[in-house]
Write a structure and sequence with these properties.
- The chain is an all-alpha fold.
- Helix content is about 80%, strand content about 0%.
- The protein is built from seven helices and no strands.
- Helix 1 runs antiparallel to helix 2, helix 2 packs across helix 3 and helix 5 crosses helix 6.
- One of its GO terms (molecular function) is carbon-nitrogen ligase activity, with glutamine as amido-N-donor.
- InterPro entries: Asn/Gln_tRNA_amidoTrase-B-like, GatB_Yqey_C_2, YqeY/Aim41, YqeY/Aim41_N.
Length: about 150
């Protein structure tokens, strides 16, 4: 289970004195705890994966913004944290795999054009959650519907 793996990885990072890894894991654990407090229950494995996924998305956005501002020191830090976070997500889908899932979702929903994108995304997201970047999935759906 991901929660147990986070605890074990945190202990290992403490022993190895790996500050970047420890910081990233603590961030995940606190985000999960905050989400549990909001929900007033323990999160499922899927929900923990969603928390990690949202943190990955935040890191990617930070990297982009720091890069535009010329802050290479912060870009490097965020990239190291991103690599740690990606280690807690399931194997990421390739563009071709996403394309295949999009094609089957389009067939399943009977989508005719870009106006049906919402239906396709709704059918597709449970299959790709945590395994693909949402903006990439969205772009592939647009390509195939156009």
């Amino acid at each position: 289970m991901l929660r147990d793996r986070l605890n074990e990885e945190m202990k290992a990072a403490m022993k190895a004195r790996d500050e970047v890894r420890l910081s990233a894991i603590r961030l995940v654990r606190s985000s999960v705890k905050n989400r549990e407090i909001e929900a007033r229950r323990e999160l499922s494995e899927q929900e923990v994966t969603e928390v990690v996924s949202s943190l990955v998305k935040q890191r990617r956005e930070s990297i982009r913004m720091f890069g535009e501002a010329g802050r290479t020191d912060l870009v490097e830090k965020e990239e190291r944290e991103l690599q740690v976070l990606l280690g807690f997500l399931p194997q990421q889908l390739t563009r071709e795999e996403i394309g295949g899932l999009v094609a089957s979702a389009i067939a399943e929903t009977g989508a005719q054009g870009v106006k049906d994108m919402g239906r396709v995304m709704k059918a597709l997201m449970p299959h790709v959650a945590g395994r693909a970047d949402g903006s990439l999935v969205s772009a592939i759906v647009k390509e195939q519907l156009a």
